[in-house]
Design brief:
By secondary structure, this protein is an alpha/beta fold. β15 and β16 form a beta hairpin.
Length: about 500
């Protein structure tokens, strides 16, 4: 596998640190786009981004913005108004997505943006910490049930044990947490049960216990099949453990196993990432999640939820320390070569992108939670319970504090520890719905949009002008006779930048 680190690269290679935090430097961004691996075709995204008409898109990708939430625009909203919104929307929704987040890990990756606490090496202290956070999560969940009565009756479409790394805590605590949710929320025979983990925690015993509880979907971070790069990122699992985890999960009876890869790691080569993708396909992952390494701290943007303390690689000092060790950060040109080569190989093997960065196999279909949240004809509410949880309806959203001390203080006092509550103004609801729908990389339909927003045409007015511009630049196809807009492959590659700058 060609994953030669930058220790062995040409000493004359330019240094491309991941983020332009200072004033935007177009020349530096163009130089990063132009630097490509000669062993692969030049990036089509790189060619498009170099055109002056796409300068705002280039500025966005250079600044490394990442969209995984779609924020509101009116911060004068009260918590009781938010609870009323989500209660009313749940009451008329066929289902919703429910997260239970336990923020505990055995270690913290150098790129991790999530609010987590490290368990440490003392087994008894780790067990006590796990009990404390499970207790707190259950208590917070009880507060939600009181504030939002419809949570007791609206069917749970998918329930996800999230983290942190929930599989790092004792299975008895996971069972206790799950039993509370199962008996207090409206789980049905159609509720999908998903759990997230890491290869070093997915032992046969843990997997067997989770299957015994009814979990059938597993997702875990592989990130890379290069042990050197894993160690550089402070991942504590190996390639062997990642490969064993999917085998053991199948043996335990999990019917869906999804795995994450990261492109843009320091020292990573295009051939190395492509080999990682091919290995995921060969291992039979049901979804290959191909994520760009995003290193702008969520505290600097409003489109991501993250930790109160920046990760090591989110800081310039951390990025420079990696470079001093001899690992070159891939240029933008190389990163988009990674993405485009991966998409080609995934498509050839029967995987398709839905939503952005998620490539489910056509034999199993889209991941349920993403479809419930984002598909144009769904966009059902989401409730996230736990440190850093994110909850939204079509009218408002709320962010739970990511500060552990503030969280525990609020829960102990019987309060739901919301850090912010934001309304989505009437003028912004249709725009937000379009942004979410476009992020699925699937066609967006005028008739469905008009069903939800009768006074907001999709192919005229502000949307029509933007879509025409995107079509002229090769990022979108507009079919007015059918009332459909769809991203091109280039549009799907750049969708995060598009929805952050254009929509």
């Amino acid at each position: 596998m060609d994953t030669v680190s930058a220790r062995n690269s040409d000493a004359a290679d330019p240094l491309f640190l991941p983020i332009q935090r200072d004033a935007y430097n177009r020349e530096a961004a163009l130089a990063s786009l132009a630097y490509a691996d000669p062993g692969f075709p030049p990036s089509a995204a790189g060619t498009l981004l170099a055109e002056p008409v796409n300068d705002e898109l280039l500025r966005c990708v250079s600044n490394d913005a990442f969209t995984h939430v779609f924020p509101g625009d009116d911060h004068r909203y009260r918590a009781d108004e938010f609870f009323s919104d989500i209660d009313a929307e749940l009451a008329r929704s066929p289902c919703f997505h429910l997260w239970a987040e336990i923020p505990l890990c055995r270690y913290r990756c150098h790129f991790c943006e999530f609010p987590i606490l490290v368990l440490g090496h003392d087994h008894k202290q780790g067990e006590a910490l796990a009990r404390r956070w499970v207790d707190a999560n259950i208590r917070e969940a009880g507060g939600w049930l009181e504030a939002v009565p419809a949570l007791r009756s609206t069917p749970v479409g998918e329930f996800c044990l999230f983290g942190g790394t929930p599989t790092a805590i004792p299975t008895a605590e996971l069972a206790r947490l799950f039993e509370f949710y199962r008996t207090h929320f409206a789980f049905t025979d159609q509720t999908e049960l998903r759990v997230e983990g890491s290869p070093d925690t997915l032992t046969p015993e843990t997997l067997g216990a989770l299957r015994g509880l009814g979990f059938s979907t597993l997702t875990f971070g592989v990130q890379s099949f290069d042990d050197e790069l894993l160690a550089l990122a402070n991942r504590r699992h190996t390639t062997v453990q990642a490969e064993a985890a999917i085998t053991e999960a199948r043996r335990a009876g999990f019917t869906r196993v999804d795995g994450d890869l990261v492109w843009g790691l320091p020292g990573q080569r295009v051939a190395g990432f492509v080999a990682d993708v091919e290995r995921m396909i060969a291992l039979g992952f049901d979804t290959v999640v191909a994520m760009k390494l995003h290193l702008r701290s969520p505290s600097e943007v409003d489109s991501a939820v993250g930790n109160v303390r920046p990760a090591a690689w989110e800081q310039r000092a951390g990025q420079e320390a990696v470079a001093r060790r001899g690992y070159r950060w891939p240029s933008l040109g190389e990163q988009y070569q990674m993405r485009e080569a991966a998409v080609e190989r995934l498509g050839r093997s029967g995987y398709h992108e839905h939503p952005t960065t998620y490539f489910p196999s056509q034999r199993v279909g889209v991941t349920k939670w993403r479809a419930l949240n984002l598909d144009q004809d769904k966009q059902y509410p989401q409730v996230g319970i736990g440190l850093g949880g994110y909850t939204w309806s079509s009218r408002s959203e709320a962010q739970t504090t990511a500060n552990p001390a503030d969280y525990m203080e609020a829960v102990a006092a019987g309060r739901i520890p919301l850090e912010s509550v934001t309304q989505i103004s009437p003028d912004s609801r249709s725009r937000r719905a379009v942004r979410m729908a476009l992020s699925t990389c699937q066609p967006v339909r005028e008739d469905e949009h008009r069903r939800r927003f009768p006074d907001s045409p999709l192919l005229a007015g502000r949307f029509g002008q933007v879509f025409n511009s995107l079509q002229e630049r090769g990022l979108m196809r507009v079919d007015r006779s059918r009332g459909v807009v769809a991203l091109t492959e280039l549009g799907a590659t750049l969708i995060e930048a598009i929805i952050n700058t254009e929509i």
